[in-house]
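Translate sequence into structure tokens.
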Amino acid sequence: MENEQNNLNDDTTPNEDNIEEPPLEAFLFDEEENEKNARKKKQRAFFGKITAFTIAIAMLLTVLGVWVQVFNLPSFSFLKKSNELSQVENIQNYKKAVVTIEGGNSKGTGFNIDSNGRIITNHHVIDGMSSILVVFPDGEFYKAEKKETYEKLDIALLEIDGKDLPHLDIQQERNWKTGGNIFVIGNPLAYSQIVMEGNITASGDLLKISAPIEKGNSGSPVIDNKGKVIGVVYAKTLPKLGSGEESEGLAVPVDKIPELTQE
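Result follows.
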């Protein structure tokens, strides 16, 4: 047994005299192999960048698609329509009197009806604002003061200290009818001075219009085809899902606003 153990040890113990060291070249990479490895690294980096870029584009398109669906603005067609309408000279003049109402972190629309500065907007636009800023499209801005508020009508009248300001005329007579063509100019979503076209779908204690209305349009003027304001946008309808009904804009007729009918 002892001899067997010794034999086993002899067979498994390496003999340093019998070991041959590999040549130095075995530890060196061939120049051609180095080039192949470098090319592989470049290819991996290139395809990595392509993959990352493709993923980023896919994510961006997904986000934009969700955004469009949320606001129901397919392909942002409202921007194209607004640009087309803005080429009309009369529309360009109307836009000069449509202002942005800002205060705190909120924003809305208003419009000027007097060369010295009298602004109409919604009560809910300025409600809670400690300081009200009125900004005209040319960049001129003014601090506004509340003159009158009609909370039940959701209307507010503001005053600014201006002179020779662009303004819109009010339609003093209720001569608008269902089916009449109208324009709405406002600051919906993240945009400013957007023009939309539509028709009067109902006329009574309030106006219903087919022009698209979005958040930020509150306080926008509803302008008839003679260039006079017939209403002030304050909201829109929200049809039930699956009803097949289209959303409509809601506006306060100008003849319901006491101070305007007294003039």
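Note: The helical segments are 2-12, 31-71, 77-85, 89-95, 123-126, 258-261.
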